[in-house]
Amino acid sequence: MAASRDAWDASFLLRLVQHHAASGAGCSGRHPDRKHHRRPAHHLGHAAAPWLPHRVPERALSMGLAAESIEGFFVQRERWCRGAIQSLFLRWGPLGPGLTPMQRPAVFSRPAGSHSTLCACFCCSSRGLLLLGWMPLQFTNTGDLIRFQQLPLLAGLFLATRWLVGSHYIPLVSVPASIFASFRLAPTVLASLIQPFGKPFRVTPKGSMSVGGRQVDTVTLAPILLTLALTLLGLLINVTPELALVPFTEFFPIAVFWSGLNVLALALAALLCIEGPRLRREERFELKEPALLHWGDKSLPVLLVDASVDGFHLSADPAGSALPEASEGLRLVVQDVGEVPLQILRRWPGRLSGRFVPSQAAARRLDPQAVQR
């Protein structure tokens, strides 16, 4: 969609790079006086100047911005959400002077944080129908509703999404991811609208800072499970004739269909709250270097499959000598590197994995690529 936003001169999103015409900057090789930023407010200010911001390919940049843990994901998204809402209160924000009527709606929806808030509201809408008997539409029947509202709406939404983003949007994957983020970001949206400034800046945890994060995000999991339980409770109540709040001949069949999809999406979102173990702190680089493993008065030829600044993976011939039983007091000798002390953490038949004992100088000599990158 970024190319179409460029065509309307409306590329004001985070992660965009500003390209200024020489006439806009004053002369060739000069940047504007305003500090060069990636924030939407500064892009809007440049557009009003008028300099035209345009996007660049973001694949490498998006990989660098990717969070490494659930906690890091929400720290990053909450910061982006709060920063976008703050642009509403700045002179060069979407409500400021100098923008065209097309540029304002193109950027206004994101700082308003509408997506996360609306997603949470839609997830809770069917509970109001099933548990309280609220009817979304009156004076209609199920057949007319399906023919004239539901099917055209679904077809239009599907075709428009395929036209705009192609295969990058998969409902059964994208919807649970949006639900997963919405329950945590909706309070941030409301709090930022009330008090946009004053909360300290938090850096996204990276590397070893993200490894020690919690394994289950209970803050997000609890409201998701509560919403899931209320949906199932509403379905159970309404399939019992004596307790039904919504007559079967009215909106109930459609409510059952959408509630079933909600249950599936909520279940997938709940699975996202459970973070798998991360056994590595640093990026591994493939080496496949012959080495010699020493422990006590014994030694074993091994292959150093890969290594990072603090860890390694060894493989040995299963038909050869037995692997060491000890986990500490081992040394690895690599050609042109020397002897490196190590500790075994995991064992498999013919394979060993572990970490280098804090001899950082030796580990850095072993894998200079990891340090450079």
From TrEMBL:
InterPro entries on file: Glycosyltr_2/OpgH_subfam
Highest rank taxon of the organism: Eukaryota
UniProt main location, coarse: membrane
Any GO CC annotation of this UniProt entry: membrane
Coiled coil: none
Topological type in the membrane: Multi-pass membrane protein
Transmembrane stretches, start-end: 219-239, 251-274
Transferase is among the record's keywords: yes
Gene Ontology molecular function, alphabetical: glycosyltransferase activity
Intracellular or extracellular location(s): Membrane
Alphabetical keyword list: Glycosyltransferase, Membrane, Transferase, Transmembrane, Transmembrane helix
Protein name: Uncharacterized protein
Organism (species): Daphnia sinensis
